[in-house]
Amino acid sequence: MKFEKKSLKFLEKYLNTSSPTGYEHKGQEVWMDYIRPYVDKIEVDHYGTCYGIINPEAEFKVVIEAHADEISWYVNYITDEGLIYVIRNGGSDQTIAPSKVVHIHGENGIVKGVFGWPAIHTRTNQNEPTPKIENIFIDCGATSKKEVEDMGIFVGCMITYPDEFFEMNDRYFVCRALDNRIGGFMIAEVARLLKENKKSIPFGLYITNSVQEEVGLYGADMIADTIKPNIAIVTDVTHDTTTPMIEKKKEGDQKCGAGPVVFFAPSVHHTIRELIIDTAKAKKIPFQRAAASRATGTDTDAFAHSNGGVPSALISLPLRYMHTTVEMVAKEDVANVIKLIYETVLKIKPEMKLKYH
C-alpha cells in the first residue's frame, strides 16, 4: 500500500511528536501546519482542540473527528534517594513499563529516564513481583530529591515514551500513540483529497482534532458545544481480536487488513451508519461490523449526547496491542478508512432526513 510522500512525512513527524493528554499543543501545531492549505479557516479552543473548516459560512455543519492525545504518566512522588513514582494520565499500562526508556518533560527541557526493575536473579518464584502503579519507578540517574529537582523535574511533570514510527513488512505502521493520532492523519487526508480533487460540498465541514479523549472524552464534549454540528462522523481505533489472549466472545471479531469497522451502538445514529455502509458497498470498500453495549467509549458518545442529540456514527480502525509502544495498524485499512470517510462526506446533503428510526 503506497501513500504520497508528503503524507507519510507528515504522519511520521506527527506520530513522533509527543502529545500527552493536557499537553497536546506540539502535536496540534504539526497537524494544523499540514491541513492549513486544505481548509478555509483554522480555529483552536481554550483547551487545544483544533479544527479546520471548509465553507465556514455554511449553516449546515458536518464534523469528521479524531482525538489527538496519547497516554502518558505524571510525576507523583520523588523519594529522598531520587527515584520517581508515577500516576497515570489516561490508560497507561503498568505491565509494559519495566525497562522502558522515558522522556520526562521537565522545566528545563526533556530529561531521559528508565523504568527500573529488579534483576531476574534477585526474584524467586515464591515471591515474584508484578508491575503495579505502587511499585514501578523511574530512575533518572539522580541520587537525591534535590538532584532530581535541579534537573527541572517536579511533581506534575509529564512523562512519555520516545518510541518512534516505522513501517513493518510493507504492511503495517507501528508506533506508540497510533491511538489516535492515526485518526488525525486520516481526517487530514480527507481534507487534502477534497481540496486536491476540487470537490465542492454543500455544507460546512469541520475537520476536528480533539484533546483529552483518553481521560474522559472531554475535548469532544467541549468542542461539540462550540461547533454545534448537525452530523458527526468520528474515527478511532478498535481492537484486532485475532492476537493471543483476547476473547472474541467478549471483544468481537475484528482484524487488521479486513477493512474499517462500522459500529452498532446506542449512540450511533441509524441513518448515518446506513449511509456509511451503503457507501462502502457502492464503492467496494471492505468493512467489518462491531457492536458496543451502552457506550462506544469514544468521542462518538460525546458528540451524540451533545446539543440535544447530534446524529453521529463511528468508523474504527483495527489496531493491535493498544496502549503499548508498539501499536500496529494495517496500511491497507488506513487507506480504506480515509476512502470511506471521504466518499461518505461526498454523499451527505443538508436536506437529509435525520429522524431516528
Automatic annotation (TrEMBL):
Q: Give GO BP annotations, semicolon-separated.
A: proteolysis
- Comment on bound cofactor: Binds 2 divalent metal cations per subunit.
Has the keyword Membrane been applied to this entry?
no
In this protein, the active site sits at E213 (proton acceptor)
Q: Which UniProt keywords apply?
A: Aminopeptidase, Hydrolase, Metal-binding, Protease
Binding-site positions, Zn(2+) 2: D179, E214, H323
What does the entry list as the binding residues for Zn(2+) 1?
H67, D179, D236
MF terms per GO, please? aminopeptidase activity; metal ion binding
Which cofactors does this gene product need? a divalent metal cation
Keyword DNA-binding appears in the UniProt entry: no
**Pfam families noted in UniProt:** Peptidase_M42
Q: What family does the entry list? A: Belongs to the peptidase M42 family.
Protein name, as recorded: M42 family peptidase
Write down the species. Answer: Chryseobacterium pennipullorum
